[in-house]
Amino acid sequence: MTIVSGKVEARRTLQSARSDVLRKMWEHRADYAYVLPAIAVMLIVIAYPIYYTIELSFFNTPPGLQLRDKIFVGFNNYTAILTSGVFWQVTFNTLIWTVASTFFSFVLGFAAALALHRDFIGRGVLRAILIIPWVISAVAASYIWKWIYHSDFGIIGAVLVELGWASRPPNFIDSVSTVLPSLIVVNIWREFPFAMIMMTAGLQTVPEQLLRAAKVDGANAWQRFWHVTFPHLRNVSTVTILLLAVANFNSFIIPWIMTGGGPSNASHIWITHIYELAFGRQRWGVASAYSVLLFIILMTLGYFYVRALSGNERKDGSA
Amino acid sequence: MSTVSETTPRGRTARRVRIDGWRWGGRAFLVFMLLYTALPMIWMLLTSIKSGFAAMQFPPQWWPDQPTLDSYQKLLDPQNSVGQDFLRFFWNSLIVSTATTILSVIVAVPAAYAFSRFTFPGRNFLFFAVLLRNMFPAVIFLVPLFILMRAIGLVNTHGSLVLTYLTFGLPLAIWLLKGFYDNIPVQLEQAARIDGATRFQAFVLIVMPLSAPGIIATAIYSFIGAWNEYIYAYTFLSKNEQLTLPVGIQRFFSENTTDFPGLMAASFMMSVPVVVLFLLLQRYFVRALTEGAVKH
């Protein structure tokens, strides 16, 4: 008796909840007009491609991308990826690339923000100079560093020889063992300013009174940083690290322009590999399957990203 | 008595030394970062004013023996075929970036305002859906977008680039602007509404002017993003006269692999517009970028 009535009750509340939503949507119909253009563009250029990528990943499509001639192959593209040796090499490269780039960009950017927190003459100029690498095109950055690393006339090699640390200029980006670290240095050069900007803004929200109080209580510089400043920056740090990780995971231009993934795949990361599979070797099915796997990984990261962001929002609401 | 007078000064000096240590460490670190950041750019400039012969020497000329502006003259000379190409790429980049910037401001401003002010059902879902776009690399969208552009006849047009740039610029633009609107007191609009303005009038007449810094920042961000974009331009455009700067430069120097002074001069000139734009307006830019992540 009670159970039945409970069920009925639940159904009734469910129904009323549904009509509630519809009524609310109707009441707010004018609000949607503001977001409609943005959503429409997004749907065309995002939802449709995602659907298409998933479909293509189950087919073999001929090189010219003649869609009428595609053949259904089930999960073959996926098994082909997971059983190939290149996949594991590229995944390993991607891991090193993403983790090292993110870690060093964040640490250097954070340290620069801290060092620039105290006012001194020329601080504005210095800050502006440090941000420039982030503004210029990655293509330009790649060429600048390619020239710096040049195996015959590169400046780093020349300096090493002048100092007597090497008998001849080393091959930075033509050697399997040094190519990935060399490219990571370039990537950090371009990415650390972003972390610096974010953490600079974060530092401005740390209440001065707390720091002064800690100083009065005898906390030293490190203790003040660790117990007062850092806890305040946890949210900004999370967002910054996630954004950096995603950006690095998705990098393409620096490895593509500087090495094209070589020598012998030593600097191929996921994105360059997918690009080469699709537009170089025209293996659309395998490339699409890779994209779907990538998509799943990024959705997982995205979940944490949204959680970090909505954590921010909630804090705001209560404050 | 004597112990007290001894310990106090020692404690004080110890503390002073430690603080100085942090400060000097910070200074040394900043010098290191300055060198790391600036040296590659300085080397680019020094190389660009060398002759092709002077650049290819070992050991290198640390300072060019005979500085020359030949590379720049060649790139900017409309009579020369290299100059013709370069100026055309420059012009193409300018058109595409400007069109993208104008469109993304038009689309992002109302969307960001709605996300900031209204509480319609699905608001959070739509907002995060928009943000999630930033998670995905261009490569995922390349094949289907290529098919789409081919189907609607936009391959090899600048329209295909503007449409795609619009979508990858939008999430950040909306996020930046929402931060700005969140910080504009809602009471201002309420006052306007009481005085008889419609909701739309309050938005256009009160909120828009106040958010001008945010709109400027959004515009710079869209412009820089479009100016520097490479993958889509590389994939969608094949005709030489339509290329934008990053792709044009890459294609040109894959044919002239040894002209490093020319390459450095081109890289420098490609960077000038965005760096100047950024330096002029960096106050807005940096503020807007952080407004979303950090609430004051």
Would you give an account of this structure?
The complex is a heterodimer of chains A (319) and B (296). Chain A is an all-alpha fold. Chain A is built from 14 helices and two strands; from the N terminus they run H-H-E-E-H-H-H-H-H-H-H-H-H-H-H-H. In chain A, 39% of the residues are buried. Chain B folds into two domains: 38 residues; 214 residues, Orthogonal Bundle (MetI-like fold), CATH 1.10.3720. Helices cover 78% and strands 0% of the residues of chain B. Chain B contains 13 helices and no strands. The interface between A and B is large, with 103 and 100 residues.
Summarize the structure.
The complex is a heterodimer of chains A (319) and B (296). Chain A is mainly alpha-helical and 319 residues long.
Number of domains of chain A: 2
- The fraction of residues assigned to DSSP E strands of chain B is under 5%
| Cα radius of gyration of chain A in angstroms | 26 Å
- Arithmetic mean pLDDT of chain B: 81
What is the terminal-to-terminal distance of chain A? 46 Å
User: How would a textbook summarize the main sheet of chain A?
Assistant: 2 strands, antiparallel
CATH superfamily of the largest domain in chain A: MetI-like
| CATH architectural type of the largest domain in chain B | Orthogonal Bundle
Q: Tell me the overall shape of chain A.
A: flat
What general form of chain B does the structure show? globular
The CATH superfamily of the largest domain in chain B turns out to be MetI-like
Would you report the number of β strands of chain B? 0
